[in-house]
């Protein structure tokens, strides 16, 4: 067989695991492997909230991640020509280039939903650093303000969106704000982090036992849960809720969900009404020979139960590992495996040093917390980005 050019587009969690899996599985076929991404390094997206508390190491150099022999091209895809087996991308200077492929993997991920008003969406490292600056500024100002209402407002933060990302962000910022308050001579008890959640329950897919554990930890850390509340926007130092309520806040951080990368819709490939690429059960794009898609930009359905994968890192990594096998078998004309959804587990941090992990073992739910759970959480973050 002639040497195959395999191009993986997008070096997020799905893309880097796809590159590793392809390298590992392709034994019988000579190939050239290329990763295309506009970023100068891999971004550890699941840790964005760490940049909001001042941690700086959120990227990993491509050379530390990519297997030996993988080429990296810095650029952003903007169209595909499936009949010519060629894609077009722009480099960082805006110049267009063509790149031929035999196999193309699209893993261009998702973007954070836009928000109205003065708050911050936790969407990228720059935004996270801005959040850090604003919170620091508010706590500093609180040391000089005499008026008690204004002081309370400056020391109040709203995290909007009670998914895993919102929960992790609320705990981390709560810990950071209380520590910083103490450092500058403000009573940490005056800090208040509020988690504003549109639904009745946190962790709607979790068990009652897990929810209770989480609520206990929130109480212990003095994080205020405002459930069943829809936040509209931050305006003039107030968080406006749909029921007319106005909460005085210093700032707000929004973690209100992801949407597929809008570039999907300009590639000229079939996509679903939610903006995700249409795939078959082996991640092949419908009617597009040699093109596959995984991760947040792909609509992936388990053929055995009709369940659609969510936009999560753990699902993206499981798809990437299977994709290596699928491509290896497709190239030699053997039947390839089909997608299988992963088992539901929960693993999330509750500030530095604590976390909750829940999984079913022989049908019984096992919950791990405190230090051991925190170590497990750190391992999952590291595995997601190949960090030792
Ligand atoms: C703040 C936050 C916290 C999260 N926490 C968790 C968590 O705790 N657990 C969990 O399971 N999931 C979490 N997620 C979701 C998780 O990050 C995503 O599901 C996961 O990153 C999906 O991986 P991906 O590779 O498909 O997409 P992405 O990680 O979005 O990667 C896409 C890649 O494509 C590149 N790209 C973009 N456009 C182009 C283009 N035009 N051409 C070429 N390359 C392009 C990007 O630079 C990026 O490298 C979180 C998400 C956020 C935003």
From TrEMBL:
A GO term for molecular function: oxidoreductase activity
EC number, as in UniProt: 1.6.5.9
Superkingdom of source: Bacteria
Main EC class the enzyme belongs to: oxidoreductase
InterPro entries reported in the protein's UniProt record: FAD/NAD-bd_sf, FAD/NAD-binding_dom, NDH-2
Coiled-coil ranges (or none): none
Keywords for the protein's UniProt record, in alphabetical order: FAD, Flavoprotein, NAD, Oxidoreductase
A Pfam family the protein falls into: Pyr_redox_2
Catalytically driven reaction(s): a quinone + NADH + H(+) = a quinol + NAD(+)
Domain FAD/NAD(P)-binding: 5-320
Assigned protein family: Belongs to the NADH dehydrogenase family.
Protein name, per record: NADH:ubiquinone reductase (non-electrogenic)
Organism: Chungangia koreensis
């Amino acid at each position: 067989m002639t040497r195959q050019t395999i191009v993986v587009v997008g070096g997020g969690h799905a893309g880097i695991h796809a590159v590793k899996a392809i390298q590992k599985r392709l034994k019988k076929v000579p190939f050239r492997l290329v990763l295309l991404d506009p970023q100068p390094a891999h971004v550890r997206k699941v840790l964005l909230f760490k940049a909001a508390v001042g941690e700086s190491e959120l990227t990993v150099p491509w050379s530390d991640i990519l297997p030996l022999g993988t080429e990296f091209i810095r650029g952003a895809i903007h169209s595909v020509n499936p009949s010519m087996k060629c894609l077009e991308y722009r480099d960082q200077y805006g110049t267009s280039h063509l790149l031929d492929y035999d196999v193309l993997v699209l893993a261009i991920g998702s973007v954070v939903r836009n928000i109205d008003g003065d708050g911050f969406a936790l969407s990228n490292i720059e935004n996270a650093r801005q959040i850090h600056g604003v919170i620091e500024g508010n706590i500093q100002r609180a040391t000089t303000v005499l008026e008690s209402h204004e002081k309370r407002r400056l020391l109040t933060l709203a995290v909007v969106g009670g998914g895993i990302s919102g929960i992790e962000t609320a705990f981390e910022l709560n810990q950071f704000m209380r520590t910083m308050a103490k450092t500058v001579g403000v009573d940490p008890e005056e800090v208040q982090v509020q988690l504003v959640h549109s639904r009745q329950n946190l962790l709607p897919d979790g068990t009652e036992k897990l929810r209770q554990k989480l609520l206990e930890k929130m109480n212990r850390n003095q994080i205020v849960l405002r459930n069943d509340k829809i936040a509209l926007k931050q305006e003039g130092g107030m968080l406006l809720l749909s029921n007319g309520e106005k909460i005085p806040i210093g700032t707000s951080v929004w973690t209100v969900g992801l949407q597929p990368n809008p570039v999907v819709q300009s590639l000229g490939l079939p996509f679903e009404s939610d903006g995700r690429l249409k795939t078959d059960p082996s991640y092949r794009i419908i009617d597009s020979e040699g093109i596959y898609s995984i991760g947040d930009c792909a609509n992936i359905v388990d053929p055995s139960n009709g369940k659609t994968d969510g936009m999560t890192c753990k699902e993206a990594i499981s798809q990437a590992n299977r994709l290596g096998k699928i491509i290896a078998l497709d190239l030699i004309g053997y039947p390839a495996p089909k997608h299988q959804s992963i088992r539901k587990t929960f693993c999330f941090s509750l500030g530095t040093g604590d976390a909750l992990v829940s999984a079913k073992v022989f049908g019984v739910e096992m919950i791990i917390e405190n230090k051991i759970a925190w170590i497990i959480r750190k391992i999952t973050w590291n595995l997601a980005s190949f960090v030792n």
